[in-house]
Amino acid sequence: xxxxxxxxxxxxxxxxxxxxxxxxxxxxxxxxxxxxxxxxxxxxxxxxxxxxxxxxxxxxxxxxxxxxxxxxxxxxxxxxxxxxxxxxxxxxxxxxxxxxxxxxxxxxxxxxxxxxxxxxxxxxxxxxxxxxxxxxxxxxxxxxxxxxxxxxxxxxxxxxxxxxxxxxxxxxxxxxxxxxxxxxxxxxxxxxxxxxxxxxxxxxxxxxxxxxxxxxxxxxxxxxxxxxxxxxxxxxxxxxxxxxxxxxxxxxxxxxxxxxxxxxxxxxxxxxxxxxxxxxxxxxxxxxxxxxxxxxxxxxx
Length: 301
Prior knowledge:
With 301 residues, the chain is of the alpha/beta class. The chain has a single domain, classed as Aldolase class I (TIM Barrel, Alpha-Beta Barrel), CATH 3.20.20.70. The chain has helices at 78-89, 105-115, 142-153, 171-180, 219-232, 246-254, 265-268, 272-286, and strands at residues 6-8, 11-13, 17-19, 41-43, 60-63, 66-69, 95-100, 121-125, 129-130, 136-137, 160-163, 185-188, 192-195, 197-198, 203-204, 210-214, 237-240, 259-262. The longest helix is centred in the last third of the chain and has 15 residues, at 272-286. The radius of gyration is 18 Å and the shape is globular.
């Protein structure tokens, strides 16, 4: 009997396959393709305290083996999520994780208070600019990562997942700062900062000039960072970044991930998460694995 269950910071999931925030909306579109109850968890698109229209278009640009996005956290705000979107997701037997974003520590804390225990976990997006510190992202310095994690943890009534930015010098320092401040779990990686230029107009393709790179192109970086972080911390790690097959998911778990999130590939194949679950089950059967612990972190060097 194959056991796919996993515990991520106190939240028990039926399997380790999650959706990555920013690519899944609130699940409505994907529910037309499969039963969301088959997923370990749904991580909704980034939420802010008030509604946001996002950045000006164009804000998506295709790149070799990925996409650049500068959507700018377009979302209806946390109140609409609680009143309209969460009741829809609660029809399904799957964990719901809210990704929250803000420009001040106070905004993050207010959102944690408002969410309370209505959701199963909070994922802290620390790639946002801290307006009180000159616009530098919360997640790029150890002291700011520690500060925001510690503050939000005091307001958080469910497991707190801190989503790490790869746009740093040493990812393990950042991970350790989040763990020390009370994070229950880490997720990584968020998008890599990138840029694309139209050679005919000589202008950036994105209206925002730069954007976040995701997709298969970032996978080797993501696997490396998950490997480094999983070795450094004593809390669970959710791996993501370019996963487009069950083989990719297994690779992340061999590197030390406890669970994995599917992001950009949802746009290519809406059924990807389900196919990945099925592929992982087959892999486990073929290799005599009874549970995820039989191969998690079992990379041989």
